[in-house]
Amino acid sequence: MKPSRGAVSMAIIASTLNLGLARGFNIAKHLSRSSAGNTLTFRGAATSCSTPFRRSLHSTCFIPTDGESSKSSSSSSSALFSAAPAATASGATDTTSVNDDQSNEIEQAARKALTITGSLPPPCDFGGISYLDTSSLTENHSHRVLFILGGPGAGKGTQSERIVNTYKCVHLSVGDLLRSGAEKKDYPHADMVKECLVKGQIVPVELSLGLLRIAMDEKAQEAGSEFGSRIFLVDGFPRNYDNVEGWMEHMPSYTSVLGSLVYNCPIEVLEARIMTRAETSGRSDDNLDSARRRFQTFQTQTEPVVRALEMTEELQAEGNSSGESQLHIVNIDGTGTVEEVWDETEAAMNAYVKNDILTANMNLLKAIEGGNLKDFAALCDEQLLVESGSKTKKSIADIFEWYEGPISDSASSSISNAKVSIQNGIKALVSYDRTTKVGKIVRETREWEHGSKGWMCVSVRREDL
After folding, report:
1. How far apart are alpha carbons 309 and 304 in whole angstroms?
2. Which of 29, 115, 298, 451 could staple 151 via S-S, CB 3.0–4.6 A?
3. Residue 320's closest CA among 114, 73, 136, 93?
4. Residue 318, Cβ neighbours under 10 Å: how many?
């Protein structure tokens, strides 16, 4: 009996994940910032687009090859990027039916992706700031993921490099992982991947995701890492509906997709950038013909995926009582200078990172209010536990009282007027008015730093109001 596609997919990804995977794979279960540039007003709104898109009949995990880049094309860029509407029996164009089909396909993909954010609950409120409680991601060891999307030359690589340097994220390119996997002697599917890349054929999405899982697990469990609970930047994925379906089949139990940074740039700008890059890059696909084909692939296959993810965001918001979503798609204008594009990128990244910061701050307040000394110590930097006053107060209980006061006085009745200031990606200040149950009102400011155990409180100060 011929095995089903699902059975083959499960077998492929399982055997892929057996290679170098630190933790097990259960097939049954899983197959206007301020002038200082530090303070953000957080809001996530996807840019809508009413332009209809036509999905290509052939969906691939698109990896340019030498053979492909050497092909020539006589089509102009304007001809390449125009979607051909369907024709009726009489020969007239029926754009209504085509647009309806496209819309239905986008909506179907959007609804299938509703759980792409994994275990993230609906947004919460902290003193007037909406945030996502990421506690479940830490508890379940789920990987935080951002999709990085955009046409060839849109600046994904440049901006990703700056994100990594500033926020200590991990950048993973599916194309690079496939090319690397094809050269690994101990990778059981190396020959299959290599053949697909050489011939420009479809690389099974199960293989791409298997290699991606291996890379994320290895990075998350890397010995001696200075930063914990990092965000993974998945570059160039998902490229098409098949990629989304594969992700939803295999990844939600291990990941939470926070959203996507989508770099938008017109073909004229992309062409100029690629030709400039070609002077020094040495990349075989840095030429006009290849760039135009890649841009066409992005328009016909990837942009509909972006529209679907934006609709997923809208559907989540409709289903949450707060009217806000877990998923946030951010469209960024990629036509400006590197610094101009970085300003938008930084604002978007701060909005994602603030979820972990406010989650840590809220969990620390809960530990303080409940007198949970273990959780209190787990969220405080070691230096904080040995600083002023603690030289003669050795126990955690003494340190707790030194910083927070008697447990009976520290319980909060309300938090208001919150403000988050993120500095250089790995430091933050969280300030808010805190009213205790004994009636005392203070302006409390906690300083946080991102370290090997995630975000940790390094100092606290209060001002009576």
Report:
1. 9
2. 298
3. 114
4. 9
